Amino acid sequence: VQLQACGGGSVQAGGSLRLSCAASGSISRIDVMGWYRQAPGKERELVASFGNDGSTKYADSMKGRFTISRDNAKNTVHLQMNSLKSEDTAVYHCNADVLYYLPDGSPVAEKLWGQGTQVTVSS
């Protein structure tokens, strides 16, 4: 059971990038999926999240610029980032609250993290 993220890169201020993250493995249920980011010298912060009830949450600085979407059939979450600013430069991590079962039938509830993808915005 793992998360695999892709889509980072370098872009000029005002540009756009789209991040994607896919969960794989024998997952029984995924609750919240989302994105966090961590800039150099700063703590990791929430970017956006998407609940399995369809609810979304955004950090104030991302509202109106970023859009999170989710495909439950494919266990994927995406982050469309528009009007990027230099302060958006960070490593972006996807995460998901998942439930899966071990071979012995034991349930495991776990918060998975993707490997992180670098987003660099130049001014």
Describe this structure in words.
The protein is mainly beta. It contains no helices and 11 strands. The strands form 2 sheets. Strands 2, 4, 5, 6, 9, 10 and 11 form a 7-stranded mixed beta sheet that branches. The chain has a 4-stranded antiparallel beta sheet with strand order 1-3-8-7, with no helix packed on it. β5 (45-50) and β6 form a beta hairpin.
Primary descriptors:
single chain; 123 residues; mainly beta; 7-stranded mixed beta sheet; 4-stranded antiparallel beta sheet; 61% strand; elongated
Give the C-alpha Rg: 15 Å
Q: Alpha-carbon distance between the termini?
A: 38 Å
Derived structural class: mainly beta
Beta-strand percent range: over 45%
Q: Tally the helices: what do you get?
A: 0
Oligomer: single chain
Can you tell me the residue ranges where pLDDT is under 50 for at least 5 consecutive residues? none
Q: Work out the helicity level.
A: under 10%
- Count of extended strands: 11
> What string, H for helix and E for strand, traces the elements in order?
EEEEEEEEEEE
Main sheet? 7 strands, mixed
Shape: elongated
Provide mean pLDDT, rounded. 96
SSE layout and pairings?
Layout: E1 2-6, E2 9-12, E3 17-24, E4 27-38, E5 45-50, E6 56-58, E7 66-71, E8 76-81, E9 90-101, E10 107-113, E11 117-122
Parallel strand pairs: 2-11
Antiparallel strand pairs: 1-3, 3-8, 4-5, 4-9, 5-6, 7-8, 9-10, 9-11
